[in-house]
């Protein structure tokens, strides 16, 4: 019996080793509801469920490479990862022509966030000189001019939830957060303590990019992602985390010179 069990374990190990592997990049700066990382591996979250479902759809074993966000680009250049998700073309440059884009999968808003009871100024330029909570390595085009002239100063945190926790603690008056993270952060707080979305700074349709290499089943992966979107699987993943695909926050997208009215 023991010999049979040993043979079965060896067979299972060999089968797993021979199964094709799809290497996903996972940014350390991601936090819930996008992803939760334990012992250097993702265990739950919207993006984890998306990547797990993709692996199941294609019959390929998922392998997760957790790294600093600024390291992700280097890993892509070196061919160390096959798939990067939660990304939009405006964040990348021509170095990524060896990757092909999936259909848009998620819609994300970047928000200017304040404490309960705060109201947005009519224009971003009316914000007094101050530090603003940001995430290390993240780019905020709507605030570039104000950062460049010193009106606003970045106070970087390792991830989004830490930036919101500092805002809640009064470390600064404003922070920038994606809408998914703000809704998740507020979910257990009483209404009077919830952080407030003051305005939409930017909106993006986010996709995955897949390495275009003969060793990677690129077209099968892209087709599976398109099917996941069309079949409603992506929406069901969002609903699992009580996160709607769209949430009314502001009637218009904010530019560097204007915030929507109260």
TrEMBL record:
<comment type="similarity">
    <text>Belongs to the bacterial solute-binding protein 3 family.</text>
</comment>
<feature type="signal peptide">
    <location>
        <begin position="1"/>
        <end position="17"/>
    </location>
</feature>
<dbReference type="InterPro" id="IPR001638">
    <property type="entry name" value="Solute-binding_3/MltF_N"/>
</dbReference>
<dbReference type="Pfam" id="PF00497">
    <property type="entry name" value="SBP_bac_3"/>
</dbReference>
<feature type="region of interest" description="Disordered">
    <location>
        <begin position="243"/>
        <end position="262"/>
    </location>
</feature>
<protein>
    <submittedName>
        <fullName>Bacterial extracellular solute-binding protein,family 3</fullName>
    </submittedName>
</protein>
<feature type="domain" description="Solute-binding protein family 3/N-terminal">
    <location>
        <begin position="32"/>
        <end position="242"/>
    </location>
</feature>
<keyword id="KW-0732">Signal</keyword>
């Amino acid at each position: 019996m023991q010999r049979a069990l040993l043979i079965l374990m060896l067979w299972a190990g060999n089968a797993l080793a021979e199964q094709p592997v799809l290497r996903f990049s996972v940014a350390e700066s991601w936090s819930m509801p996008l992803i939760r990382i334990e012992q250097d591996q993702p265990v739950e979250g919207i993006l984890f469920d998306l990547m797990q479902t993709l692996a199941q759809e294609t019959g390929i074993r998922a392998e997760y490479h957790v790294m600093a966000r600024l390291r992700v680009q280097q890993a892509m250049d070196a061919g160390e990862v096959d798939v990067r998700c939660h990304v939009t073309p405006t964040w990348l440059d021509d170095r990524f022509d060896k990757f092909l884009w999936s259909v848009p999968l998620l819609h994300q808003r970047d928000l200017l966030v304040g404490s309960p009871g705060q109201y947005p100024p009519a224009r971003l330029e009316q914000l007094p000189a101050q530090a603003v909570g940001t995430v290390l390595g993240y780019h905020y085009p709507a605030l570039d001019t104000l950062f460049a002239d010193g009106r606003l100063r970045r106070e970087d945190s390792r991830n989004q939830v830490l930036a919101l926790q500092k805002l809640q603690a009064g470390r600064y008056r404003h922070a920038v957060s994606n809408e998914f993270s703000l809704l998740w952060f507020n979910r257990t707080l009483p209404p009077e303590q919830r952080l407030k979305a003051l305005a939409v700074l930017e909106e993006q349709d986010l996709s995955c990019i897949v390495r275009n290499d003969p060793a990677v089943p690129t077209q099968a992966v892209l087709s599976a992602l398109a099917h996941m979107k069309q079949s409603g699987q992506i929406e069901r993943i969002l609903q699992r985390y009580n996160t709607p695909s769209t949430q009314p926050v502001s009637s218009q997208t904010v530019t560097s010179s204007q915030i929507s009215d109260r």
